[in-house]
Amino acid sequence: MLPYHTLPGGIPGVERPGPNSIVELLQRVLQREGFYGGPVNGGFTAATVAAVRNFQAARGLTADGIVGPATWNALPAETLQGIPVIREGSSGGAVALLQRCLRRQGYDPGPINGVFGPETTAALKRYQQTGAPEIIVDGICGAQIWPLMG
C-alpha cells in the first residue's frame, strides 16, 4: 500500500471544511449506516467529524475523527463504488483535490487548477508506480487511489 497521510480532523485531501464530493459520499454512507443525521452537503463539519468518531468507536477503531486507511477499510465495500473516477480531460473540484494531494506527497501535477492534463497524468502515474504491486499504473484516479490519497 502507498504511504498514507491524513490531516488531523480531516479525510484524505480535505484541508478545511467545505463542499467536497468525497465528504458527501462519506456522509451518505455514515447516514445509511445510522451514524449521521445531518445534511448531505459535502462539508466536513463538526457533525460529520462526530459521526466519523461514533462509527470508528463502534468498529473498534481509534475514534479520532480522521478518515484514514483503517476507517476506509471498515466502511461497507460498496462505499468506494460512489467515488468519482477522474482521468486526463476531467476537470473540477475532484481534480483540484487530486492535484493538491499529489503536490503534498511530492509529485508535481503542474498548476493546481482543476484541469486534469498531461502533467497531472504523469504525476499520478509516478505516484501509482510507488505503490503496492496490485496498484494499476494507468493515470486514472478512482476507487483504487482515492482512499490512499492524503
UniProtKB/TrEMBL annotation:
Enumerate the spans annotated as Peptidoglycan binding-like domain: 22-75, 91-146
The record's Pfam families line, in alphabetical order, gives: PG_binding_1 (PF01471)
Task: Identify the stretch annotated as signal peptide in this record.
Answer: none
Q: What is this protein called?
A: Peptidoglycan binding-like domain-containing protein
**What organism is listed for this UniProt entry?**
Amycolatopsis vastitatis
